[in-house]
Amino acid sequence: MGEVAVLLVLRAREKRAARGSADRLVILDRQLRRGEIPSSPADREAMRGLVEQRLHRTRRRKPALVMLCLMYALLVTVLLLLDSGREALVHLPATAAALAVVVAVAGSAWLRREVAANAPAGDETPAGDKAPSAPERVALGQEA
To answer: Quick one: DSSP state of residue 40?
Structure first.
């Protein structure tokens, strides 16, 4: 139930950043994923807001992971202080292994998405440097 509430809040924030309805958010998201730049200035501004909101959200992932690890350490400490004996010796390593698998799988999926999102658009400038991709140009406020 809490997961649905979190997703609804995130969706509402993205709709506010896109300055429109859910349909407009879907259209902007599709354009962003394809690397297309919106034609109208209002849509470019909405795209810029959406990109800024998503970048802001991804900047908080590392502190969230640190907090998750601290909460796990607190759980381990509490269980050991309660002297649950053999149960702690069995459950703690199993939980640690499960947490490590979840972090590794989620991290690799996130890394694949980041690499795909930051892949060069294939454009090369005369100096041989890679040109910014379409979403980066929108975020920087550059024209198509």
So the answer is: S
Mean pLDDT across 88-114: 79
- Return d(Cα 92, Cα 87) in angstroms, integer: 8
CA angle, corner 144, sides to 128 and 17, nearest 5? 120
Instruction: Give me the residue label for tokens 């140009």.
Output: 137
pTM of the model: 0.45
Ramachandran area for residue 122 (φ above 0: left; ψ -120 to 50: alpha; else beta): left
Mean pLDDT of 42-69: 82
Task: Show the tokens assigned to 19.
Answer: 């300055």
Q: Could you tell me the CA-to-CA distances from 26 to 55, 69, 125 in Å, in that order?
A: 18, 34, 32
Token pair belonging to 114: 């980041």
91 CB-near residues (< 8 Å, 6+ apart): 79
Other Cβ atoms closer than 10 A to 138: 27
